[in-house]
């Protein structure tokens, strides 16, 4: 259960301004009620929503706004702003949630998305540079999320680099839930799973530092059947979970993505739940664990109220883990190279 003290409003005297792109899409349809109801920013924080989508989605977006009105959410300021002009959506925003992009369809490779979505993140980086608050906090969700966040940050120099993050929390939650199911534990009893690297099939879902009241830190790999079981079952299951949902729904994950975005934002803005709790966020590397400085990489982090976080940089990484971290690092380096090529063409 959330403690109300933890969720003391960030701005008691005004509405928190939240811009959401791709607001006519499916993740937004699950996320907007979480924002409007106080689930993410607490039951006392007023919210102003500024929604962006492409002109072709105007009618759907208007319908979403009608539903937000009809929800009679006590915390939501009216009118909800909706627009197809990025500068209008981002103006004055405290929090910027970037969903707007093309999701992968069955038969598409994730790398097909790099070129398709790169220009969106260039344009939105430039728009943020023009109109955003210098202390805005940004989360990129549109895939390929790490590299889109990197592209955005190349065009948005006004906002500090560490305020630009991307979503690894869905993978983190998937792993946490899987561990709970395997051990027949409550999800809330599972702590400190970690996702490393890319939000892709090379990510490394790591249980080395995870624990529950029954399984002490250091024993989780054995409790889940040992390293060969992890390598053959647990790790691939999490790495391929997005693809599994896509194959089943013929649409990518949306409800669970919205829940994860809420978790990411709540922990980022209010602090992680306890002093020792670790969550996974895609943030610019500070060089920890030998990851290239500036590369957008999922790391274990601890957050402190007001949008501050620190990468937990002192975990011992054994050979088993290092191999996975190197694989996802290599993929991210090559995505960044491709993005650099595209960016230099875009300039
Ligand atoms: N990082 C993660 O964990 C994670 C999880 C799930 C989905 N995703 C990604 O999130 C993105 C959104 O997924 P979705 O299911 O909501 O997709 P969707 O297709 O339902 O919605 C995307 C919306 O973005 C809009 N859009 C496209 N270009 C835009 C632009 N330039 N500006 C504003 N809006 C624009 C589209 O019109 C559409 O309404 C996809 O890229 C998907 O792959 C990431
Ligand atoms: O396109 C994909 O494979 C994944 C979509 C989404 O990022 C997810 O993790 O569910």
TrEMBL record:
Residues that, per the record, bind NAD(+): 53, 117, 141-143
Active site: 199
One Pfam family cited in the UniProt record for this chain: Ldh_1_C
InterPro entries registered for this protein in UniProt: L-lactate/malate_DH, Lactate/malate_DH_C, Lactate/malate_DH_N, Lactate_DH/Glyco_Ohase_4_C, Malate_DH_type2, NAD(P)-bd_dom_sf
Superkingdom: Eukaryota
The protein's enzyme class: oxidoreductase
Amino acids binding substrate: 104, 110, 143, 174
UniProtKB keywords: NAD, Oxidoreductase
Lactate/malate dehydrogenase C-terminal domain residues: 169-340
GO molecular function, one term: L-malate dehydrogenase (NAD+) activity
SUPFAM superfamilies associated with the record: LDH C-terminal domain-like, NAD(P)-binding Rossmann-fold domains
Similarity remark: Belongs to the LDH/MDH superfamily. MDH type 2 family.
NCBIfam families: MalateDH-SF1, PRK05442.1
Protein name as it appears in the record: malate dehydrogenase
Species this protein is from: Cyanidioschyzon merolae (strain NIES-3377 / 10D)
